[in-house]
């Protein structure tokens, strides 16, 4: 698509991004409140790891089977219905919390699971929508701006979540999910989402999942990028899931300081997203991806050596600003290359497979993260994650099909 064929695309896409911001910020505020509730009630790395695991498993296990529906069904409904279901479960959790003095852990875990299932449908839907809503030469920048929206959510949500967690009963705070769903859906109804060519064949989940995997593996270089990113997530996410415990247990900080770390990391992500959103038309996008992994590895590795006091905490916060800047350079740029590598009517199935591969690595790491952190100390996981990220950056450089992929993609030779 060109800008001449899409004359009003900017107004449409910014309305869409606004709807994503409104649903995202309220959902994240509730998510952070739940994590801090679990941290305060249990002070256990194992419980936090299990909660994070429940949040990731649906993405890992269901994504290949969600993709075929994304390719065939109405995109707007695939965004609206999961928000409605998540809001219904938020109301149910709020009622139980009102009637009881505490939230049963099993019910909190079910709530996290439902929210993750909703996201499993929404993430590939959003990712497959963007290439149909913007001109091709603007896609990298719009992906960067979507990253800015997500980062802004991550900046505002921890601060507001911590503030509201301190003054608002948890059973009422959960209802923010309902408010966000109403606001976001209201705006989304005004957005025009182009529907691509209809696929008449009925959904056959195993065949369609195999199609997505076959198409991905046939794309030389992108398959290797996907595998390296999956290994990176396996090594990085266990430590990332324990940020609140790192602050409150190792540095002896407060809930407010745990929120501050999340905010500064997200400020860095916002800065990285802004760089991509406004200056994102690079000739070769693989090099920024490679360097972002290397630099994140350095920042994470240094975090593992910091002293467990307030001085160490302030260094930790500073390092997380730099780490945050790096995140969009491997997540946003790789997503744009994926979107430009396949026709829109195939993207749902391919993105479903990619999201599954990205997500399944994290739960495998998290199974061991909690008990390992309780055994050797949470700070050691940051050192392990840092060394792993460095190794992934080196692997990208040493793999010729990865190093040259974007240059071949922009010459139309990515499948060769």
From TrEMBL:
Q: What parts of the sequence cross the membrane?
A: 12-35, 47-70, 77-97, 142-166, 222-246, 258-279, 286-306, 312-330, 350-369, 381-399
Coiled-coil regions, chain positions = none
As for subcellular location, the record says:
Cell membrane
Q: Which UniProt keywords apply?
A: Cell membrane, Membrane, Transmembrane, Transmembrane helix, Transport
The family database entries (Pfam families) matched by this protein are listed as: MFS_1
Subcellular location, principal: membrane
PANTHER family, A to Z: INTEGRAL MEMBRANE EFFLUX PROTEIN-RELATED, MAJOR FACILITATOR SUPERFAMILY ASSOCIATED DOMAIN-CONTAINING PROTEIN
Q: What is this protein called?
A: MFS transporter
**Species this protein is from:** Lactiplantibacillus dongliensis
């Amino acid at each position: 698509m060109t800008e001449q064929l899409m004359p009003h695309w900017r107004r449409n896409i910014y309305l869409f991004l606004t709807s994503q911001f409104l649903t995202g910020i309220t959902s994240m505020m509730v998510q952070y409140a739940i994590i801090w509730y679990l941290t305060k009630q249990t002070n256990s790395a194992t419980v936090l790891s299990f909660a994070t695991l429940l949040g990731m498993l649906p993405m890992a296990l269901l994504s290949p089977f969600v993709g075929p529906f994304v390719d065939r069904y109405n995109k707007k409904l695939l965004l609206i219905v999961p928000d409605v279901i998540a809001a219904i479960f938020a109301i149910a959790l709020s009622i139980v919390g009102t009637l009881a003095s505490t939230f049963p852990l099993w019910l909190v875990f079910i709530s996290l699971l439902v929210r993750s299932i909703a996201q499993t449908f929404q993430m590939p839907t959003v990712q497959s929508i963007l290439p149909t809503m913007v001109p091709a030469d603007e896609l990298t920048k719009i992906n960067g701006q979507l990253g800015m929206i997500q980062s802004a959510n991550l900046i505002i949500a921890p601060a507001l979540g911590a503030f509201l967690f301190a003054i608002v009963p948890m059973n009422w705070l959960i209802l923010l999910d309902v408010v966000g769903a109403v606001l976001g859906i209201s705006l989304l109804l005004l957005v025009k989402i182009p529907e691509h060519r209809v696929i008449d064949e009925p959904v056959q989940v195993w065949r369609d999942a195999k199609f997505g995997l076959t198409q991905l593996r046939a794309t030389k270089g992108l398959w290797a990028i996907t595998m390296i990113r999956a290994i990176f997530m396996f090594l990085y996410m266990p430590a990332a899931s324990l940020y609140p415990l790192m602050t409150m247990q190792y540095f002896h900080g407060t809930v407010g300081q745990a929120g501050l770390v999340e905010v500064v990391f997200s400020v860095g992500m916002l800065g990285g997203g802004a760089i991509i959103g406004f200056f994102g038309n690079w000739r070769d996008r693989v090099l920024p991806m490679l360097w972002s992994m290397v630099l994140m590895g350095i920042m994470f590795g240094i975090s593992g050596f910091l002293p467990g006091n307030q001085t160490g905490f302030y260094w930790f916060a500073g390092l997380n600003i730099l780490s945050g800047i790096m995140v969009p350079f491997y997540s946003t740029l790789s997503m744009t290359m994926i979107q430009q590598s396949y026709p829109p009517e195939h993207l749902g199935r391919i993105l479903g497979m990619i999201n599954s591969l990205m997500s399944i690595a994290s739960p495998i790491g998290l199974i061991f993260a909690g008990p390992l952190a309780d055994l050797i100390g949470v700070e050691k996981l940051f050192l392990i994650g840092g060394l792993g990220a460095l190794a992934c950056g080196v692997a990208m450089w040493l793999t010729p099909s990865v190093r040259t992929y974007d240059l071949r993609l922009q010459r139309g030779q990515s499948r060769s």
